[in-house]
Amino acid sequence: MVNLVLISHSAMLVEGLRDMVVQVAGADVRVEIAGGTEDGRLGTSTTRIAAALRSAVASGSEGTPGVLVLLDLGSAALSLELALEELTEDERARVRISEAPLVEGAILAAVQASVGASIEEVAAAAAGGSTMTKLLGS
Amino acid sequence: MPEIQLIVLDPSGLHARPAARFVQVASRFASTVRIRSATREADAKSLIAVLGLAIRPGSQIVIATAGPDADAAIDALVSELSPFVSREIPGPPVDPAT
Q1: What is the pTM for the complete model shown?
Q2: Quick one: CA torsion of A135, A115, B42, B4, rounded to 10 degrees?
Q3: Nearest partner of B17 among A94, A63, A119, A26, judged by Cα
Q4: Among A10, A19, A123, B77, which is least packed, fewest CB within 10 Å?
């Protein structure tokens, strides 16, 4: 099963999002989170992100198709890039980054992952979050 | 191609959790599974597509399956949705003798 990594400036945001993901998609999907700075402020931490990435990559056994990363805004991308540099080439090769909005993308990706889909399918499901319909007639 | 018409009863419509469970169940089958609302149709194996129907309480939906396990798929889906829907008009015609 594809594992997810959720990155946000806020630890509370990704903790809450993980709760939502588990409730909607089920507890089988593995969700690692990296929110806030190491001293508990709003911001992103390369160390936290690298730890979450490593954990997601490591928890995937041989058959695991990979890891999809979703992030919020601004410096999350920069911190993610730095965290990726800390991984080995093999680890990096199993990680894919999603441009999807964090909440929508995480839910869509998790449900797709929960049915045993490939990393390509999970990434495509998340990408749908950029344009998803929320209101009837919109 | 089995088909069944249902009325959504849940006050929130077919919201994220039941929609996700529906997609998970549909994905277990080889058959194609389509869900139709009054105006739109979606692949029931895609959460984005199902949520995109924006199914509201009281609305009618039709579930249609086609493929080798079409009957088992429709049974499983109706069973999964049972807390949220009322079963209105069954797909196959009812034999009046039974």
Answers
A1: 0.86
A2: -110
A3: A26
A4: A19
A128 touches chain B (CB under 8 A): yes
Q: How far is CA A135 from CA A74, A103, A126, B25, B47, in A?
A: 28, 16, 19, 25, 15
Nearest CA in chain A to B44: A112
Using an 8 Å CB-CB cutoff, list chain B residues near A137.
54
Kindly indicate whether the ipTM for this predicted assembly is greater than 0.90, answering yes or no: no
What are the tokens at A50?
């690298």
> Catalytic residue numbers of A?
9
A114 contacts on B by Cβ (under 8 Å):
20, 24
pLDDT in tens, chain B (98 residues): 899 999 988 887 778 888 999 999 999 999 999 999 988 899 999 999 998 888 888 889 999 999 999 999 999 999 998 888 887 654 555 566 65
Question: Is residue B23 within 8 angstroms of chain A, CB to CB?
Answer: yes
Residue that has been written with the tokens 């079409």 in this structure: B70
